[in-house]
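This section describes the prediction task in plain terms. A model, or a person checking by hand, is given the sequence of a single protein chain and must write out its three-dimensional structure as a string of tokens. No templates, partner chains or ligands are provided. The sample shown here is typical of the held-out split.
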Amino acid sequence: MSCKLINTFLNYSYCSYSFFPLFSLQKFENLIDLNFDNCQILTRIPDVSDLPNLEKLSFERCESVIAVDDSIGFLNKLKILKAQHCTKLRRFPPLNLPSLKVLQLSYCYSLENFPEILGKMGNIRELYLFKVGIKELPVSFQNLTGLHRLYAFCNSLQLNSSVLTSSLTEFYAYGCKEWKWINSKDGEEVGSRVSAINSFEIELCDLNDDIFSAGFTQLTTVTSLNLSCTDITFIPECIKEFHHLNDLDVSFCERLEEIRGLPPNLRKFRAIDCRSLTSSSSSMLLNKVLSCF
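The expected answer:
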């Protein structure tokens, strides 16, 4: 056990003994850094409402934690929140953290929900969701208004267009569920608000031709599109309108049969081991290549 206590920093990591001492957090109202990393006896992250100046809270690898107090979601000055490898944690409280820059929830295998985002949170630039049990992302995900990069590696996660915040420039998903375009309350597609995304990659996901519904045209800003190792059977004709797209990868799409169009400024195209591709589509590709010389 290490226990370092000063006016602004409290480290209670590596606490693995059977008795976890209780203390009043009211004594530490000026605390800015609270660390419970590797504290195996800790089962609940306590009420921190008496720590208004807290800027960093970490309880990584606390494998016995099953609950997090709701007060964590209302710390106005909190900048860093780390909860990776809390393997028994199932629920995360709603968040309204305007100062938050870092949110780490990866490897929380039992986590069933992504926290509701109650207010605009514009300081988080990138988010990694690796190996969590989250099944879907809430529409309130759109409140992460400064998010530029999102990486998701979650077998149970059903993808939908709520992840496409207006600020997002890079989206990468690996091994996730199918993609769905969802509608906002006013009937407009959520994807219609997307304007900045330039890299859209969904690899080895349970994905079919539904991705090419009306909302697909909201991705016309992309420069890189990766749909490899998915179950798509065609590339739609509307992709001709993707004037910024110069890198397209549909490799190992074993059911891909038909290519109805290609973007006009394509520079890199990969269709490795697309064994169902028709001869007419193969000829079109060959003619496209020859026309470039």
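For orientation: Confidence is low (pLDDT under 50) at residues 1-6, 16-22, 185-192.
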